[in-house]
Amino acid sequence: MNRTFRRGIRSEALSTLRAMAEAPEENWWKELLRLWTPSGRGDGLRLAVRENTLDFYRKGNVVAHVGFGQCKKGECAPAYVKTHIKYLRGESAGGSYIKLMKGVDGWNWSDGAAPISFSTIKENIDLRMKGVRDAGSEKGMEKVGVDTIVGSNAAVIDLEMALPLDVAIPGSVGAPRMDLVALEKHGNEIRIVFWEAKTFDDPRLRIDGDSAAEVNGQLDTYSKYLANSAWQAAIISAYRETCELLKEFWSMRGERGPLHPLVDAAPRGDLNIDEKPRLVIFDNGSRTNIDEDPYWQRHRKKLVNAGIELLVKDRASEITLPVWCFTSEQYAALAAFNDTFSSSDFVFSKFGDSSKSDDGVITLGEEIFTVDANRFVNFAYDCGWVLDGFKYSEWMTSPEGKFFWSSPENLKQASGEQIAKLLTTFVRGDRFCEGTLSTAADEGFLTAMMRRADELARANAKPL
After folding, report:
1. Going by fewer Cβ within 10 Å, which terminus of the chain is more open, N or C?
2. What pLDDT digit, counting tens, does each position of 217-262 carry?
3. Using CA atoms, how far apart are residues 246 and 164, in angstroms rounded to an integer?
4. Beta strand pairing status for 271-273 and 97-103?
5. Cα torsion for 150, 81, 238, 383, to the nearest 10°?
6. Angle 131-137-139 (CA atoms, 0-180°, nearest 5)?
């Protein structure tokens, strides 16, 4: 290891950003916070925490690089922001970065020009990326696709993650750079997982004959880093700090509530690394069905046979990264309830006696779960099938939620995570609307979940 991997900013730098966020006057930090759209919340700027710096991305392009000057311990560190001159003056302006500096007459760029808002810079980049898309640039389409994935997946915590060069690792000729870093929940453990993204037309996915494709070597180099215990310790520490800062910046913006339950839990939770990077592939928009490509299946088979975990979709907008993951044992434990719940004499709940007041008002009796129903609900909590922090009321109205809520038959297609989302919706919903769970049992939703869990347990299925 030549140098360590770090994420975070010094306390003096954080004090500066807090002061800027609380200042009565407008400033560039306030504007960047407003333009920031956290993972899973749609379109906008993406924030990546670096080593005592911050990068704000727009569709893979660094809109703003935030850094900090030297200061005495305990004092606020002077903050600055840089952007590429081409985003201000056009492609012909050169290849340098310019800094926004505070002078006696206010903020100005280091080339003497008056400040342009970051909203304008964002619009300039959007126009530039439209040209990239129109030209069919493979690298440009990959950047746009990665940004789309971030906008749809709230457990993504970093992008363009670069590890320092390690000459001790064979095949390492430069700093390995992975496209996405996300969190997954496995039982009581939170795992940091790494994704390499490729467009379907990328030639690095394919090679004729028995040789391995270029992407195989790329992922193998990543794996060597992630398997190194010293790198692991540094990466875990770095991403604990990243999640803490993301929460801090969310609060700085005046927002309440969690960014994501795993982001909230990661700083102090049982955090570990998945040593095997995954590969996500999406089309650039020219096809309607990747699987219909006559040559793709043999290349896909070679990747799978090499042990690479794939997630392949026709569009980046269709990609949902796994978050809550389940083991064969968890599937089997859920499936074990099927015999009891499928029995002809099974009853989920009963109602107590109704009462009538002196003025004639009738109060219906309270719903009382049977022993088996109580055992099932307790199991769902204890075995991780009720998801902490999951916004089930929002999910119910999403396309995925509506699909699984509409019919038990649709659960034949469900992943473990989708089963958990629906079961969480029923269990938590019952606390506010008595009878939700018993109705789900009567209509066959619970037994459909158990049958699907049995299939997943037998197949030892993975969430991908």
Report:
1. C
2. 889 989 988 998 888 999 999 999 999 999 999 999 998 888 899 9
3. 23
4. unpaired
5. -30
6. 120
How many angstroms separate the CA atoms of 120 and 177, rounded?
29
Residue carrying the six token digits 């619970």: 446
Burial class (CB in 10 A: 0-12, 13-18, 19+), 242: buried
Place of tokens 């034949």: 412
Measure Cα distances from 209 to 206, 213, 217 in Å: 10, 10, 16
CA pair distance 53, 82, nearest whole angstrom: 11
pTM for the model stands at 0.84
Strands (E), 104-208: 106-109, 156-162, 177-186, 189-199
Q: Could you give the 3-state DSSP secondary structure of residue 329?
A: helix
Q: What are phi and psi of 26, to 5 degrees?
A: -70, 145
For 403, list phi and psi in degrees, rounded to 5.
-65, -50
Q: Is residue 57 within 8 Å of residue 161, measured between CB atoms?
A: no
Residue 58 has φ and ψ, to the nearest 5°, of: -130, 110
Pairing of strands 189-199, 278-282: parallel
Per residue in 250-291, pLDDT (tens digit) is 999 998 888 899 999 999 989 999 999 999 999 866 666 787
The residue behind tokens 């998801």 is 387
Asked if 222 and 176 count as a contact pair (C-beta separation under 8 A), the reply is yes
**Exposure of 117 in the CB half-sphere (CA atoms within 13 A):** 10
User: Could you give the angle at the alpha carbon of 284 between the alpha carbons of 314 and 149, nearest 5°?
Assistant: 70
What is the three-class DSSP state of 271?
Answer: strand
For the chain, the distance separating the N- and C-terminal CA atoms, rounded to the nearest angstrom, is 32
How far is it, in rounded angstroms, from Cα 300 to Cα 279?
A: 11
Which residues face 51 on adjacent strands? 8
